[in-house]
Design a protein that fits this description.
Oligomer: heterodimer
Low-confidence stretches of chain A: 329-334
Strand order of the largest sheet of chain B: 1-2
CATH superfamily of the largest domain in chain A: MetI-like
Protein name (chain A): ABC transporter permease
Strand content of chain B: under 5%
Keywords (chain A): Cell membrane, Membrane, Transmembrane, Transmembrane helix, Transport
Mean pLDDT of chain B: 78
Membrane topology (chain A): Multi-pass membrane protein
Distance between the termini of chain A: 11 Å
Largest sheet of chain A: 2 strands, antiparallel
Order of helices and strands of chain B: HHHHEEHHHHHHHH
Helix content of chain A: over 70%
Radius of gyration of chain A: 25 Å
Shape of chain A: globular
Strand order of the largest sheet of chain A: 1-2
Family (chain A): Belongs to the binding-protein-dependent transport system permease family.
Order of helices and strands of chain A: HHHHEEEEHHHHHHHHH
Radius of gyration of chain B: 23 Å
Low-confidence stretches of chain B: 1-28
Pfam families (chain A): BPD_transp_1, BPD_transp_1_N
Number of domains of chain A: 2
Number of helices of chain B: 12
């Protein structure tokens, strides 16, 4: 069992970090970004109109008031402007994109299924490939298979995912015609088409991670096999299969599973490039598009979402790790 | 790739936490022996040669462009076919005696010149970011590890905070909010800002164990100041760690710069950068694959070379930082 005080401490720490993340992000956009009112106002603009828009957006207020309103919007929603033109932004309000006349939260929710499909598929792929490759490498340590896999992992780690994406697309779609140009086909419409369309994005997003996981698994397994308890298990005559399953694999793979949680939570960064190259309309592509359009609220919303995912992912992993691995001591009293 | 048994042993033994029993256990290896071991490793030599070539190319860019005859910003409408929407004339993206790597579709800019000048931008940013990151990482790591206490707590919290961030997304956010002037300088700052904790964390850990060692105590007893101890006793012992971490960091920065430029928040056109060249090749990939393959191959090989080199140096120095 995880001690309750540890959990409470961890959650409190997470809330502080989340608050700092909000503050940090808000400062970046508050201090650095150009005046959104000028953008919204367009060409035929008067100083009065700009003032009006500023008042509607609430950006005529001092920093802390704005930040307070933003935080309140996260929990209780907020309203932009007053009167008949007021725009409601329901909680959790991450902001409002005036360019596309939509709340950022809604935009994210609409694109979530595509992003989730890409992310989950890639995660399954890299976990399987990484662990399998690492185990094979460890078993064949120093032999041809090991060296071959080492070469593959170096390549996988080094190839930029957009270069791989373009190469695969050119080879498999344009030249050979084996796969269709990726589109977000729903699984319920046509499972086979769905698989075909998402296969390339999965591979591209997974390859770098798969390489890292292969190396980690290999190192962990080799290290575990040198532990005294494995030697003991062998010495007392356990069959090799049993030694592997019961004594070597579990401690070797536990850290992999926990790192996996963190990497999965941090996937949005990689999805940005993958979704953009393949033109899949997910959260990543939305963020990339809003960079081009300079749609600040969307960039800020996605940034916050990504940071939230990572921070929460870290905490969950920490708690799980403490639960799984008895070697991790909590505090001095536990 | 050949492994000698000792190398494997070193790698296996160093698999755990570095410096578990105190200082990094690097043997007092002479530079010459290391150099000889390095030169025997064909893969490492090949990677080193490629990196040197790229650096040379970057330095000699104006000269090379004079020889090839086209500047990086020069349009050559004769090299593209206006009837086909600007596809380069000739095979393989217009490669030939005139344009060695072919031309950009649409406006006919010479790809060789853009690759050469792009190498300048990429290397300059990656190396500057590496230097700045190393400086920050070593300074903060030393301070946190040596002085401990409240200073350590503050620095460690800041490091944890920065490492918990999805760095790529934050870099994009910061860069997209910043004005477009001085992009290269801003890129270096932003990359370093999120990059230094990874080195600092390791320097901190090793400093903490080094300062408990006898030679530091001896120096303290003979009246050395903190500055003397840090710079004369501790820093030299961190050299191999810093070299390894730095070499392993460069490919990350090369890739980050290219990725940010690819997403449109990095180097601003018309200044060429490899990532940005690949970005502008996306609409053309089906009709003119050479346009993305050439910068893509240069970028991939550069990242690969640095990664392999870092790996080999780590193995040579017998460091175990997973």
């Amino acid at each position: 069992m995880i001690p309750l005080r540890f959990v409470a401490n961890r959650v409190l720490g997470m809330i502080i970090v989340l608050f700092l993340v909000c503050l940090f992000t808000f400062v970046i956009f508050f201090v650095l970004s150009p005046d959104p009112a000028v953008q919204i106002c367009g060409k035929n603009c008067t100083p009065e109109a700009i003032d009006q828009i500023r008042a509607n957006l609430g950006i005529d207020q001092p920093f802390w008031t704005q930040f307070g309103t933003f935080l309140a919007g996260l929990f209780a929603g907020r309203t932009y402007g007053t009167g008949p033109n007021a725009i409601d932004c329901a909680a959790p309000c991450l902001g409002y994109s005036f360019q596309s006349s939509q709340a950022v939260t809604d935009m994210i929710v609409q694109r979530l299924p595509v992003s989730a499909t890409v992310a989950v598929g890639a995660a399954v792929l890299w976990l399987l490939a990484g662990v399998a490759g690492g185990l094979l490498s460890a078993v064949k340590e120093g032999r041809f298979a090991d060296r071959f896999i080492a070469g593959l992992t170096l390549t996988g780690m080094s190839i930029p995912n957009y270069v791989l994406a373009l190469s695969l697309q050119f080879l498999l779609v344009v030249t050979l015609g084996w796969l269709p140009f990726p589109q977000a086909v729903a699984f319920s419409d046509d499972p086979f088409q769905w698989f075909q369309n998402f296969l390339m994005p999965w591979i591209v997003l997974a390859i770098g991670m798969a390489a890292v996981y292969t190396r980690l698994t290999r190192a962990n397994v080799i290290e575990t096999l040198q532990e005294n308890y494995v030697r003991t298990a062998r010495a007392k005559g356990l069959s090799p299969g049993l030694v592997w399953r019961r004594h070597a694999l579990r401690p070797a793979l536990t850290p992999i599973v926990t790192i996996f949680g963190m990497d999965f939570a941090g996937l949005l960064g990689g999805a940005l490039i993958t979704e953009t190259v393949f033109g899949l309309n997910g959260i990543g592509k939305m963020a990339a598009d809003s960079i081009t359009k300079n749609d600040q609220p969307v960039i800020m919303g996605v940034t916050l979402l990504a940071a939230f995912l990572v921070v929460i992912g870290n905490m969950v992993v920490d708690l799980l790790y403490t639960a799984i691995d008895p070697r991790v001591r909590v505090g001095s009293s536990a | 790739m050949t492994f000698t048994p000792t190398e494997l042993e070193v790698e296996g033994a160093a698999g755990g936490e570095a410096g578990r029993d105190g200082a990094p256990a690097a043997p007092p290896a002479s530079g010459r022996r290391l150099a000889r071991a390095f030169l025997r490793d064909r893969a490492a030599v090949a990677c080193g040669v490629y990196i040197l070539l790229i650096i040379l190319m970057a330095v000699a860019a104006p000269l090379l462009v004079k020889i090839s005859g086209y500047g990086p910003l020069e349009f050559d409408q004769d090299a593209v076919d206006p009837n086909l929407g600007g596809i380069p004339l000739g095979a393989a993206g217009g490669m030939g005696a005139d344009h060695w790597f072919g031309v950009e579709p649409g406006n006919g800019r010479d790809l060789f010149a853009r690759i050469v000048y792009g190498a300048r931008v990429s290397m300059l940013i990656a190396i500057s970011a590496t230097l700045l990151t190393t400086f920050l990482g070593v300074v903060f790591g030393l301070i946190a590890g040596y002085f401990g206490g409240r200073v350590d707590m503050v620095i460690s919290r800041v490091m944890e905070f920065l490492m918990a961030f999805p760095a790529l997304i934050f870099m994009i956010a910061v860069l997209s909010a910043l004005p477009a002037e001085n992009r290269q300088f801003l890129l270096v700052l932003v990359i370093s800002f999120f990059g230094w904790p990874y080195l600092a964390r390791i320097v901190r850990g090793q400093t903490m164990s080094l300062k408990e060692r006898e030679f530091v105590e001896a120096a303290k007893a003979s009246g050395a100041t903190s500055a003397q101890i840090i710079f004369k006793e501790i820093l030299p012992n961190l050299a191999s760690t810093i070299i390894v971490m730095t070499t392993l960091a460069v490919p990350g920065y090369v890739g980050t710069e290219a990725g940010l430029s690819f997403l449109g928040v990095g180097v601003v056109p018309p200044t060429p950068s490899w990532g940005q060249m690949i970005a502008s090749s996306v609409p053309w990939y089906a009709v003119d694959p050479a346009y993305f393959l050439i910068p893509g191959a240069f970028l991939f090989l550069l990242v690969l070379s640095f990664t392999v080199l870092g790996d080999r140096i780590r193995r040579l120095l017998g460091e175990g930082m997973a």
